[in-house]
Amino acid sequence: MPDTAELERALSGLADRIATLRDDPDPGAMLRELDAAEELVRKALSELARSRRRRDGGSQREQKLLRQVFRALPIPVIIMDTGGTVRRINNETTRLLGSPAGYLIGRAFPLLVDVTARAAFRQRFAAVLHGDDSASFQTRLAHQGRAHTVRLVLSRLRMPGEPQEMIAGVVLPTEVQLPEPAVQTGVPDDAAVLAAARRHELLSRLTGLLLDEESLREPVALLRAARLLAAETADWVIADVARDGGLVRSVVIGPSDQPVGRLQRTVEEAPPALAPVVEQVMTTQSGVVHEMLADDSLLGGDVLQAMRAGSLLSVPIRADDEARGVLTLVRLRDRPPFGLADLGLMEEIGLHLGLAMRAQQGFQRRAQAADTLQTGVLPRTLPEIPGFEIAAVYHPGSGMRAIGGEFYDVFPVKNGWGFVIGSAAGRGEEAAAVTAMVRNGLRVLSVWEDDPGEALRKVSDALVAQNTGLFVMAAAGFVRGRKVRLASAGHHPAALIQPGGDVRFSEGGGVPLGFEEGSVPATEELTLSAGETLVLYSDGLVGSQSPAGDNYGEQRLTEALARCAGQPPGAVVKAIEEDHRAFCGSHAVDEITVLTLRRSR
Question: Which keywords are on file for this protein (predicted)?
Fold first, then answer.
C-alpha cells in the first residue's frame, strides 16, 4: 500500500499527462489516464481510512482510560450539564447516596439538596456557570432516608464529545446522619412537626371517609380515598384492584388544573399487568418509593414521561395477608419528591383501604342475601278477598338499618282469609331467615288452626326450639265474613278508621314470638262495618325520627289516618307514605311496612 508521499508523486504525474492531452487529444490515451485517475483515488481513500482508524483508536483508548480513572476516584464526583441535570456519577457517589448510577443519571441534582439549602445551591451554581471558575461551600444532601452534611466544590469543565460546558461537583463529606430514632434535644424542628401533623390529619380524614355509612353500602370507598389523596398529596392517583385472578384498573385521577383527558384515558385503558412497579408490589406485598425516577417504563410504555413524573410511590392494598390491589401515586417534576415518611403513611393507608374493601364486600354479600330472603317473604301480588279491599306497601328504608326483617302476607285459611305483619328484632340475612320461618310456619299451621293466636303460639315455640336467639313482633288475623279474629305477639295495636273520621286502636300487646316457650299472644275479635278500614303498621313507621330527633309516633299517625276517612286502602297507604316522607325528609329511616283492609260491603 503506497504512503502519502507516493500518492502525491503519482497525482503530480497524472496532472502533467492530462496537460499534454489537452494540446493533442487522443481518445485512447484519455481513457487510459482516466483509469489511472480512478485507481489513484481508490488508493487515496484507503490510506485516509487507515489514518482515521489509527487516530480514532488512540482517542478511544484514551477515553476508556479516563472513564476508568473517573469511576475509581475515591471521592464522590458528579458531572452536570448547565441545567443542573446529572450526566455522570462515579462509584463513590453511588455509595454515598445509596442509589445506582442509572437511578440518578438524567435527573435534576438540586432535588438531592435539602429543601432549605436549594436556593443557596442554585445561586452558587449560577455564579460558576456565568463566570466564576469554582465555588466551595457547605450544604446538605438528602436521599434514600439519609442526610449528608458535605462541602461541595463546583467547577466548570469541557468534556470531549460534549458540545457545551459541564459543571463538575466534588463532594467532600463532613458529616453523615443515618435514620435513627430521634433524640429529643431542645426545640423540635417546626417543619418536621408540621409535616407529621399533616400526615396525621390526612390519615384521620381518610379513616372517617372509609367509616362513612355510604362507603360500606356502595363501592365508593376507593374512589373517595383516591380523590382525597389527589387533592392533598399527589398529582396522579392510580388504583388497581384484584378481581377474578387478575388486576383491573379501577381508579385513575389526574391533576385537576391541567388538560389531561386523553392521557388519563390512556392510563385507564393500560393493563396493570404491563406496569412493572404494580407487578412488583403485588408480588412482594411491599411498598416502593422512587424519589427520582430513573425508569420511565415503571407504569408501562412512556406513561410517566407523558405525565412529566418526577417521583413515584406504590403500595399494596391489603387486608391482613390478603392482597386486594395496588395504590400508585405520582408527583410531577416541579414538586418535592416522595420520601420514606410518605411511603410509611401510604402503606398504612393501603392497609386501611384493604380493610374497608373487605368490610364493604362482606356488607354487600349480606345485603344481597337479605334482599333475596326478603323477596321470598313478601307476596308478589295481593289476593282478592270477597267483601274487602286490600293494599300494602313495604319500603326497605335507607342507612345501615335498611337490612332488616320486616314482612307481611295475605293467604287463605280454613273458611276464610288470613293476614300477618311483623318484624324480627335483628338485621341482616339471619333476621330475614327467621321472618321467612314465621311466615311459612303460619301459612302451614293456618290450614289446621281456627284461631290465629294458637297458630302464633306454635310458631313461637318452634322459634324457641330452634334457638335462633331472635324474637319476632307480629300481628295476625283471620277474616271470616265481617269478623276479624286478631292476635298480637308484642306488636303495635292495629288502627281502625271509621267512616266519620274517628280512629281507634286495638289492644295489641302480647309476648313476642320466640321470647319464651308457652307464651300466649293477646287476642281479640273485631267486627268491621262497611267503610271501616283496618290499618296495621310496623315499628319502622312509628319509631322513625325527623332530622331534629323527634319520633313519628302513633299520635301523628292518628292525625294522618283521620284525614283518610272514606278513602280506599290504596289512598290510605299513599297518604301515610307522603306524611312520613314530609316528616323525615332526607333523614335515614328504617324499614316501613303498612297493610290495610277495608270492608267494602
Answer: Coiled coil, Hydrolase
What is the percentage of the chain residues whose pLDDT exceeds 90? 21
Rg (CA), the chain: 43
Q: What does pTM read for this prediction?
A: 0.46
Residue 440 has a pLDDT of 85
Percent of the chain predicted with pLDDT > 70? 73
- What is the C-alpha separation between 117 and 152, in angstroms, rounded? 12
- Look at strands 146-157 and 406-413 and give their pairing: unpaired
Q: Which residues contact 277 (CB under 8 A, 6 or more apart)?
A: 288, 290, 298, 299, 312, 314, 328
Phi, psi of 151 (to 5 degrees): -105, 120
Answer whether residue 114 shows pLDDT above 90: no
C-alpha–C-alpha distance, residues 411 and 378, integer Å: 12
Four-point Cα dihedral 575, 578, 580, 586, nearest 10? 170
Residue 310 burial (10 A CB sphere; 0-12, 13-18, 19+):
buried
What distance in Å separates the CA atoms of residue 330 and residue 314, rounded to the nearest whole number?
A: 9
CA dihedral 577, 581, 582, 588 (to 10 degrees): 160
Three-state SS for 178-211 is CCCCCCCCCCCCHHHHHHHHHHHHHHHHHHHHHC
Mean pLDDT for the chain?
Answer: 79
Contact 600, 572 (CB under 8 A): no
Classify strands 134-143 and 246-253 as parallel, antiparallel or unpaired.
Answer: unpaired
